[in-house]
Design brief:
Number of helices: 36
Number of strands: 31
Largest sheet: 6 strands, antiparallel
Structural class: alpha+beta
Number of domains: 4
Strand content: 15-25%
């Protein structure tokens, strides 16, 4: 058999695999690699129990899943911020089409994991297509682009930010489709019109994914990618023209007309590219208007309506001192949360391949120069605070003024360096790369410089330093091999790339995935809130306010360690425990997951509403108000009971970290009372408990001049049937000045301990802690007290009662009581956390007969802050014209019952004996409509945030329904955009047929030319 014959047989049997099948196999290998990297969430069923994915995206996806499976479009969120738009919050991605099938068939945590893995695979696929179609790479080079992008550190770190990952997955396809608009039509390539349609659709998908900043970064990157070459070419020609003119002038020759003509017409390609970008972006925005219009309406009422505070716009900038650490992989130790936005490594192997590509870019295509352009732009803008140009952008340019975390511009760097790595791999595989010893030496110096800079700026661990050293040695060795065996070097660098990225992934949050029960199981506090009876059948569950941090240890910690310790790594077990504590205090958006309404919430995007933030000033000083919500993290004391009652807060969750055990007796120090002369505080609920003494923890504030034995207060203990025991509290005996010193006139009483929380210590002169004094007030015969009242009698200063407990000294038993001067509460649950019931809570809907009209929110807030304001009898209504008007009606008995309470529909039955206002303490928002007995009535904005309608005397049925016009407008614009896109498609198909002569032949009846 001759050699030619054997070659033909080989070709007929082995080389007839279709090209599309080869591409499919390469793409499948990328998807398999993604699944292997993310096997814990892709295959093992673990959950991500840290960061935003746990406390933000799981809850929102639970509610979206509930709504979709019930056949309801989720328009309103009644569980967070006392009511807020759900659909208009773009971060949920309600109209992102790839979310719908997941919400319909899977539990929320599983659908979150699946969308993460699918979009990482999509990023790899789109990177591969970009490499093949735009960068003109072979399969190995394009595979490198997809692998570097999908498995690199930037997207790996964004796994916790689901909507960012969804948007960024489309970036390489967006760039590829843009390039296709300027390519010459070929049989295997999409024609420009088809590519334009694809670009419009992809831009729409990026916008619908819901992370506005990601869409902004992607579109700016697209502009830089598209216009970079068009701007570069005239600049290059201008430089040549200047050199030519200088040369001719030196030789005394005239500057001819031919030189002028050579520089004319440069603006045409720039104008063409700009027009394409504007047209595609405009149609893409129109397609996404169904989401963008409601979000725009929300943004006008959002806390970000006027842009972020300037310092917020620059938060999480990439420091130059941390730059090298951000670009190099980390190994071993998890990346700290404060640096999770600063991760953009691609591995030393990818950097070596990028160096090969840069060495061969002198005659590179414009697409590669565009990739380098976005790479440089991403690094430049990621510096944020450390970049003077960015400071100007953040202050004056829309878009930059509305977003924080400049480090997110590293997304463009990740895409650009992935493209360079693919070009380098392609050059080595095709044996077209020129790798000189000098260039290898330069790369070695760069790597050493990065390593030293990273060691100085990021404090890497030993494992990371060893990983850098090993990766650098292998990469440099393979570059030296590339001079003689480029294909072998390429294979080695790609193997090193996979190993590096896999090892570095162990430092990212997804490596800490833990058991699914971290999210799915109930904690006792949640179970207690869910088991509380509803005020009425079909009525609204009352709200709660959490004030606990997560520094406590779960009571079932030993059981958790026994059950999950053998199954999980130490980091995964730690995350499980932290998740359990987050669920115990329901922070910050977890109430949405379990269907328990909260006052609090967290967003960081277009929520909360600006008026919600204004209302927070009733609860805390203005300097403690957070733009993102998060009351739990900022409140330092239980708010005034009248605000808790107005906000429909029936339950308050706190921890036990500042409670005290004194002489084997537990004292609840959460509430307490600060009493001046004549002021009184009483225990609202005294459980039946037979005791022989009352333990009391207290101190004096501002009473340093009181002498020994001065009576500072009276404690009255009632035992029923008119029997009351009265005890005097004396300075120097039962209590004393909290900050006791030599200038105090009375002696120091028995000190129980030092339990002041930080906020209290700051109020008391900035001291780290003061004295809490403990005393016991005894009676002779054991008895069960029914009431406990404390009255202050000191002539100056204040008596601060921290806690009281009933004590049975016969048995050592005790019963902690709740004494408060801020309302009436009782303890209803004590476990890892405590849950108190507010005994004076107002129902979600109630009637008032007095209204004050305020011309603005500041005036309304001032009126409400007055100590005389009583929310149970008066409401402050918003008005644009003047204030001070009052509407007073005769108050009589009224009955209000919520018949049905759904997110978008609330039905209430009200019976009034006199005209008044029905107040519903859910957030006011455009799109809410009200009807009384079927007749439309206006909804007034009440008490800054809430809703109220005027109701006459008699029995009425009041219905609130949410029908936002912004959604209707968005649907109309999207339909118009879709029609425009269909017209473009039809035009493209028509022109395609005309080009082939089909239509002309049909008209003339001449088929002889068909196919020619």
């Amino acid at each position: 058999m001759t050699q030619s014959t054997s070659s033909r047989i080989y070709e007929s049997t082995n080389l007839r695999i279709p090209n599309y099948l080869r591409d499919l196999l390469v793409v499948l290998s990328l998807c398999a690699l993604v699944c292997a990297f993310y096997w814990k969430i892709a295959l093992a069923g673990h959950v991500l129990a840290g960061g935003d994915v746990f406390t933000y995206f799981y809850p929102y996806w639970v509610e979206a899943t509930r709504a979709m499976q019930a056949g309801r479009l989720p328009l309103w969120n009644p569980y967070l911020f006392m009511g807020a738009p759900f659909l208009a919050n773009s971060q949920v991605g309600v109209f992102y089409p790839f979310n719908w099938p997941l919400w319909l068939v899977l539990p929320a945590h599983q659908s979150v994991h699946l969308t993460i893995v699918l979009h990482l695979c999509l990023a790899a696929l789109n990177g591969y297509l970009w490499g093949r179609a735009s960068l003109r790479l072979g399969r190995i080079g394009a595979w490198t682009v997809g692998a570097t992008l999908a498995l690199g550190g930037y997207l790996g770190a964004q796994v916790e930010h689901v909507n960012q990952l969804q948007g960024l997955a489309w970036l390489p396809l967006m760039l590829m489709l843009y390039d296709r608009n300027f390519s010459k039509p070929k049989a295997q390539n999409p024609k420009p019109k088809t590519a334009f349609v694809g670009l419009v659709v992809v831009i729409g998908l990026v916008l619908l994914a819901g992370h506005t900043q990601t869409a902004f970064i992607s579109l700016v990157g697209l502009v830089a990618y598209g216009l970079g070459p068009a701007l570069w070419e005239p600049l290059r020609r201008l430089g040549r023209r200047f050199q030519a003119r200088s040369g001719l002038a030196r030789h005394g020759l005239p500057y001819g007309q031919d030189h002028l003509q050579s520089s004319q017409g440069w603006w045409r390609p720039l104008a063409r590219r700009t027009a394409l970008l504007v047209g595609a972006a405009g149609l893409g925005v129109a397609l996404a208007a169904v989401q963008l219009v409601p979000t725009w309406e929300l943004s006008r009422l959002s806390v970000r309506a006027g842009g972020l505070p300037f310092n917020e716009r620059l938060s999480f900038s990439l420091s130059p001192f941390y730059l090298a650490r951000a670009l190099l992989p980390g190994f071993g130790a998890p990346i700290p949360p404060e640096h999770i936005e600063h991760v953009a490594y691609v591995g030393l192997a990818a950097l070596a391949l990028a160096a090969v590509a840069i060495r061969n870019t002198r005659h590179a295509s414009s697409n590669l120069r565009s990739a380098i352009c976005i790479l440089a732009l991403g690094l430049f803008l990621a510096l944020g605070l450390y970049n003077p140009f960015y400071l100007l952008l953040a202050r004056f340019v829309p878009g930059f003024a509305h977003f924080r975390v400049p480090a997110r511009w590293l997304a463009l760097y990740a895409a650009g360096v992935a493209a360079l790595a693919g070009v380098g791999a392609n050059a080595l595989m095709q044996q077209q790369a020129r790798v000189s010893r000098r260039r290898v030496g330069v790369f070695a110096l760069v790597v050493v410089g990065l390593g030293v800079w990273g060691a100085l700026g990021g404090r890497p661990g030993r494992a990371t330093l060893m990983g850098w050293a090993a990766g650098a040695v292998v990469a440099l060795g393979l570059l030296l091999v590339a001079r003689r065996a480029p294909r072998l070097a390429a294979v080695g660098l790609l193997a090193l790339l996979v190993v590096e990225l896999f090892a570095a992934g162990s430092a990212l949050p997804h490596a800490r995935a833990t058991a699914p029960q971290a999210f799915t199981s109930l904690r006792p506090a949640i179970a207690h809130l869910l088991s509380a009876p509803l005020p009425s059948r079909g009525g609204a569950r009352a709200r709660f306010l959490s004030m606990s941090d997560i520094t406590f240890d779960p009571g079932d910690l030993p059981e958790i360690e026994v059950i999950y310790g053998p199954q999980l790594s130490a980091d995964a077990l730690y995350d499980y425990i932290v998740a359990a504590k987050h669920k115990e205090v329901l922070s910050p958006n977890l109430p949405l997951a379990f269907g328990v309404p909260a006052v609090d919430g967290y967003d960081g995007g277009v929520l909360p509403l600006a008026r919600y933030v204004t209302l927070q000033r009733l609860l805390m000083p203005e300097n403690g108000v957070s733009m993102d919500g998060r009351l739990r993290e900022n409140l330092t004391a239980i708010p005034d009971g009248r605000w808790l009652s107005l906000f429909n807060v029936q339950y308050v969750i706190t921890d036990k970290l500042h409670d005290a055990w004194l002489d084997d007796v537990f004292y609840d120090l959460q509430f307490g009372a600060q009493l001046a002369h004549g002021e009184v505080a009483a225990v609202a609920h005294v459980p039946r408990f037979e005791a022989t003494a009352l333990g009391l923890v207290s101190y004096l504030h501002g009473g340093a001049a009181l002498p020994d034995g001065a009576v500072v207060g009276v404690v009255e203990v009632g035992f029923g049937e008119g029997l009351t025991r009265t005890f005097e509290l004396r300075a120097g005996q039962h209590t004393a000045e909290g900050l006791h010193g030599p200038d105090v006139a009375h002696a120091r009483a028995p000190v129980g301990g030092h339990f002041w929380p930080l906020a209290l210590s700051q109020v008391e002169g900035g001291q780290p802690e003061g004295n809490d004094y403990v005393t016991r007030l005894r009676w002779q015969e054991p008895a069960a007290p029914a009431t406990v009242v404390v009255r202050a009698t000191l002539p100056e200063g204040e008596l601060v009662v921290r806690g009281v407990s009933l004590i049975d000294e016969r048995t050592g038993g005790f019963q902690a009581l709740v004494l408060s001067d801020r309302g009436h509460f009782r303890l209803v649950h004590s476990g890892d956390v405590k849950i108190y019931e507010n005994l004076e809570v107002l129902p979600r809907a109630f009637i008032v007969h007095k209204a004050t009209v305020a011309p603005g929110d500041e005036v309304a807030l001032a009126l409400m802050s007055d100590v005389a304001f009583d929310p149970t009898v008066e409401v402050v209504l918003a008005a644009s014209d003047g204030g001070g008007r009052h509407s007073v009606g005769r108050r009589g008995p009224e009955v209000v019952r919520i018949v049905s309470y759904e997110p978008e529909l609330v039905e209430i039955e009200a019976e009034l004996t006199a005209p008044g206002y029905l107040v519903l303490t859910d957030a006011w928002y455009p799109g809410w409509e009200a009807a009384v007995d079927g007749e439309p009535v206006p909804i007034h904005r009440a008490d800054v945030l809430f809703r109220a309608v005027a109701v006459d005397a008699g029995c009425h049925r009041v219905v609130f329904s949410f029908r936002p016009m912004s959604l209707c407008a968005g649907v109309g614009v999207s339909l118009a955009g879709l029609v425009g896109l269909v017209i473009v498609v039809v035009q493209a198909l028509t022109l395609s047929k005309v080009e082939r002569g089909v239509i002309m032949n049909a008209i003339t009846g001449d088929n002889s030319q068909e196919g020619k």
